Structures are given as C-alpha cells and as structure tokens.
C-alpha cells in the first residue's frame, strides 16, 4: 500500500485540473525583483515543480482509490506504516503510528480500532515485553492495497518499459537521495504541538 497524505476529510490534493507535465517542465521560474516573488535558490527549480505535480497526481489517485474502499487518509497511512514495519522486520506499536502520522495517541487508537474492526489490522503481544502490543497487517489489508493501487502501478510499470536501463538506474540512485533530503528537512522542522483529540 502506498503512502497517502496525512489527514482524514481534509484532502491535500489540488482541486484544479491536472497540468500536463510538459507545461510544468517548461514553466519559467519567477524573475528576480518582481514584487511578491523571490528568485529560486540553486539549480533544479523546474524539477521541484515536476515533482510537485507528480505528488499532486499520485495523491489525487490515492484519494479516489481509498474513498472507493471506505478508507480515510489516516487509515491508508497507518496501514502503509505497519506494512513497511513488517517488511523491515520491525513491527510498530500504537505509539509509533501516532508519531509517524503526527496525530494524538487517542486519534491513533481510533484509527487502529477502526482498521482492526474491518479486519485489516491485528494486535499481537510483544514477546519481549508483555505490556506492549505490536500491530500486524492482515491478508485482507494486503489484498485491499493491491486492489486500490494496481491500476496506478500498472501504468507506471508500462512507462518504465519504454525507458532504457540507464534512465532507470538514474531513478534508482537519485530517488533515495531525494528521500534522504526530505528526511533531513523533517529533522529540522519544529515539532508539532500537542494535537489533543484531533480528527482521524
């Protein structure tokens, strides 16, 4: 299951019609000295716009798909985090879900209860600490994730088929570097305030 924007009913997608990639790529950065605009720092400003457009479109797809299955943003995010933890061999706890989704402990509990009631999550005792409960995604969660995202994955794989090995290798090498850059930015971002009983 792929990540979706963290929220419930407040979508983070752009409500405007999607813009062609070529249009975004060819857009000129704002000129220096124009009131209300600042000159982009460094190279690659056009790539930032392209990546933004990709993110908007993938988020819009995720919104459409998860609504078809009656899932909230936070449901999809929680399942994604739990599945990634399982793949790493590091199962998550409820507190981990709260921190990763940037929601309160009570909101995380509500999300976990909702997913467990639908058969997508199960709770397991931590053999190392009986006071802790580990979360595991069920086969139902995996099947739902495949059904939701297979159309998008198929389209992306079809695009990759038309690329040569050198182009694919660039993505394999560079995308993890971009991901690491975002993670560095997260570490210097001020912590979120106490969210209390925020919406899920």
From TrEMBL:
Q: Where is the HTH marR-type domain?
A: 44-180
Q: Could you name the domain of life of the organism this protein comes from?
A: Bacteria
Specify residue ranges for compositional bias: Basic and acidic residues.
7-28
Instruction: Show the GO MF annotations.
Output: DNA-binding transcription factor activity
Supply one GO BP term: response to stress
Cross-referenced Gene3D superfamilies: Winged helix-like DNA-binding domain superfamily/Winged helix DNA-binding domain
The segment annotated Disordered runs over: 1-44
SUPFAM superfamilies reported for this sequence: Winged helix' DNA-binding domain
- What InterPro entries does UniProt report for this protein, alphabetically? HTH_MarR-typ, MarR/SlyA-like, WH-like_DNA-bd_sf, WH_DNA-bd_sf
Report the PANTHER family cross-referenced here: TRANSCRIPTIONAL REGULATOR, MARR FAMILY (PTHR33164), TRANSCRIPTIONAL REGULATORY PROTEIN (PTHR33164:SF106)
Q: What is this protein called?
A: MarR family transcriptional regulator
The scientific name of the source species is: Kocuria coralli
């Amino acid at each position: 299951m792929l990540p979706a924007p963290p929220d419930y009913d407040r979508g983070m997608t752009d409500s405007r019609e999607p813009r062609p990639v070529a249009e975004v790529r060819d857009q000129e950065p704002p000129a220096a000295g124009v009131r209300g605009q600042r000159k982009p720092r460094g190279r690659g400003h056009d790539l930032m716009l392209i990546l933004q457009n990709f993110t908007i479109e993938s988020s819009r797809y995720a919104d459409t798909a998860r609504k078809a299955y009656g899932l909230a943003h936070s449901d999809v995010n929680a399942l994604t985090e739990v599945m990634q933890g399982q793949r790493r061999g590091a199962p998550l706890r409820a507190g981990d879900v709260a921190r990763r989704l940037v929601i309160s402990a009570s909101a995380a509990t509500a999300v976990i209860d909702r997913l467990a009631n639908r058969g997508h999550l199960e709770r397991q005792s931590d053999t190392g600490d009986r006071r802790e409960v580990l979360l595991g995604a069920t086969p139902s969660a995996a099947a739902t994730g495949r059904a939701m995202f297979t159309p998008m994955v198929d389209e992306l794989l079809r695009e990759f088929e038309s690329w040569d090995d050198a182009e694919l290798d660039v993505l394999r090498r560079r995308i993890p570097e971009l991901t690491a850059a975002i993670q560095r930015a997260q570490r210097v971002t001020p912590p979120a305030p106490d969210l209390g009983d925020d919406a899920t």
